[in-house]
Amino acid sequence: MRENPIGIFDSGVGGLTVLKEISKLIPKENIVYLGDTARVPYGIRSAETVLKYSIECADFLFKKQIKMLVVACNTSSSVSLEVLRKRLPIPVIGVIEPGVRAALKVTKNGKIGIIGTEATVQSGAYTKKIKSLNPKIEVISKACPLFVPLVEEGILEGAIAELVIERYLKDIKNSGIDTLILGCTHYPLLKRTIQKYMDGINLVDSAEEIAQEVKTMLSQKKLLNEKSDECYKIFYVTDSPERFKKIGEIFLDYEINNISKVSL
């Protein structure tokens, strides 16, 4: 069981930011990644549709004999996490709570901004989690629906990215927040351009926090892979493996092999 892989899914390539941090922190772990690229983005879908897609992704990965599931998609985490935890007999980790904990650690003035997909923002999942841990925190949320297409197109810097970022973040920049949660796993690829615009505001990328939570849970359940043999990473996508490879290699900074196209 220790050598069984960790399963990670996202609607596209964004979850590779989580995979990258997990691999850095616990490099001996085997990983199976599923990008539902045929149906990206999840953020514009109804909650019912996101739940359906999330169950299909989780069931696919569970058949690969994973020992843990990481829902590396904020939209899926906000809608489907509890359902998946009840459905699967393995640990299931989402991305919202780790990001919230990180934001609460760094905020000084108690004003936290959240940017994410329409579905994530409308769910109120981040606000609810923050308020449950500290009801005094002021939360300001903003949906940024064009950020995911920018990342999926590889437009991470330059005039187009800067104009889109300014359009979405102008109000939240002037709201008095000192901390901004990047509430979508695609957004860290825009981090440099966002930070340039949001000068002086702390950006929270929850991928590092998620990796730490994965390590802690695997350790507690005595599931850490202790073999020193070279680990493997297998990638599945539901559409366009070539496109996934091209953009995914920007995320990971190394060549991606072992990609297969599948139907869910």
Task: Tell me about this structure.
The chain has 264 residues and is an alpha/beta fold. It has two domains: 6-94 and 208-261, Rossmann fold (3-Layer(aba) Sandwich); 96-206, 3-Layer(aba) Sandwich (Rossmann fold), CATH 3.40.50.1860. Helices cover 45% and strands 16% of the residues. The protein has helices spanning 16-25, 47-62, 74-87, 96-106, 118-123, 125-133, 147-152, 159-173, 191-197, 207-220, 241-252; strands spanning 6-10, 31-35, 68-71, 92-93, 111-116, 138-143, 179-182, 202-204, 233-237, 259-261. The strands form two sheets. A six-stranded parallel sheet has the order 4-3-1-2-9-10, with helices on both faces. Strands 6-5-7-8 form a four-stranded parallel sheet, sandwiched between helices. Strand 9 (233-237), helix 11 (241-252) and strand 10 form a beta-alpha-beta unit. Helix 1 crosses helix 10. The longest helix is centred in the first third of the chain and has 16 residues, at 47-62. The mean pLDDT is 93.
Secondary-structure blueprint:
Blueprint: E1 6-10, H1 16-25, E2 31-35, H2 47-62, E3 68-71, H3 74-87, E4 92-93, H4 96-106, E5 111-116, H5 118-123, H6 125-133, E6 138-143, H7 147-152, H8 159-173, E7 179-182, H9 191-197, E8 202-204, H10 207-220, E9 233-237, H11 241-252, E10 259-261
Parallel strand pairs: 1-2, 1-3, 2-9, 3-4, 5-6, 5-7, 7-8, 9-10
